[in-house]
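Q: Here's a chain of 567 amino acids. Please give me its 3D structure as tokens.
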Amino acid sequence: MGAAQGTELLRRLQAASLRAVSSEPQLELRGGTAWKHGLPLPYNAGHLYPRLDGSDIRLARGASDGLALRTRHSSLECHQSRLPESDGGRFIFELLEQLRCESLCSLPGVKTNLRHTFWHWAWQFHGSTLAETDLGQLLWAVCVLAHAKVNGVELPTDIGDRIEATRAAFPPGLGAAISNLRAIRHDQQAYALVAQEIASLVDADISARRAARGRSQPPARSAKDVRGFTLHLDVANEAQHYGKAALSDGGASAADPGNYRIFTTAFDRQIPATQSIRRAQLEKYRQTVDDIAARSGVNQPLLSRQLRALLCQPDVDGRRGGAEQGLLDGSRLAQLVAMPQERRIFLEDQHCSAPYAAVSFLVDCSGSMRHHAPQVAGFLHLLLRALERCDVPTEVLGYTTGNWNGGRALAAWRKQGAEPNPGRLNELAHLVFKTEEQSWRNSRLSLGALLHQPRYKEGIDGEAVRWAAERLGQSPAERRLLIVLSDGSPSDAATGNANGESYLQHDLVNAVWAARGTGLDVGALGVGLDMSNYFGDCSTTLDTGQLATAQGIREFLQLLQRMLRIR
């Protein structure tokens, strides 16, 4: 298993644990953050987000268990209504609420994971430069003491010795308030009042110490030590790179594309992928793709059976006579009279396998994907051939831009005065490699066009997803699956410079959420990159060299299973 598969497997296991412990089937894990109804949940306790490298699986377990318990036991509305405004107060208040939720767990294995993850973070804090000041020592002492009191355990002797001096200098009432937390941990509102009091005492003490030193308070949210360890998190705000943070249960706001603008569509085009490519060049490309598929080692008949099992269902295809059971065949009554012992006088239903799903592949043709093009083409060659044997309607689309850095759209914007926030500033080029009506054999030349390097420029992913979803939405199939093949985030220099770097990322999340809202199943195959930030659990990751191989096909089949099972 490659590094990408190992990371993907760990994320999937975390996501499964998150849903199981929280009893919330709609939860997703994107970039280590819990999402619900297409929106990130703003849980800002530091120990929920350890740096995972796969060497300590307990950290991953503890992080997902902590997120799950927070979802299960905490009212976000109640928590946000009492959240302090100051950085120090918010840090303490967030931590105390997380500790309350974790203390309500009765599962021994989960409790072990939670303790391990908390103390891993606590010792990172203690070893950072942030803990070298008296303010850092105060915060560390409050954290470890609160963890012990809320969970009803004794502090380890060495920890007690480390915080003894700091604890003795606590402001009046702080120690008693921390000791009161466990008794009211089942009542979030009562607990929040005491947590507010603790946060206020700590915040006031921090302000007094800074004032005594004659220093103004630095911007705490940017405070990090040299190793990047930070106390202050704003998870929902960081998730703005992938979608809009909100405190509601989702709904229209998550899928509303109203904030997305397009400066001009005058230069957009939808073209056959083979346009402007010489026939001889296409033949050469096609031969390269055929060679990759031939070296793949994929058993085509087996792949066809596996796809048929996933995407087809039994159907009645007429009746067969001469059966020994079933419906009586009236045309054989005379035979029954002549030979009473004859039993082959019934009609039996004949069953066939009929597809109930349609599949559309949407290929990212931005510049970075040109290095993966041969493997992507070989991968699609294998799948299209097998899907055709199952009679599953299949389409292959692609997306790129007509020019680098905006092209004529950017020039038109500048000519009109370059007003701020113009929206998308580039020329869309949507490519059609194969329509549903085309056979695999007739589309082989078009697939070869994936190898045409000049096609690869920039990527406007959100609009491409909407375009592909609109085409797929016209299919009468019961299930309609849209699968995006990409190696990264949306990227267009002109649009990003004029609207902000996360503009296209927002739109991609909105487009995926809107497409799912219309009944489509939308997933992604990340080429060397985890795409769960945009597609949640309906995504998988493959190293480039594994695409057109038996391993790549197995990973794809597992993705299909998840997509079909989730809804």
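Q: Can you summarize the key feature?
A: The CA atoms of residues 47 and 119 lie 8 Å apart.
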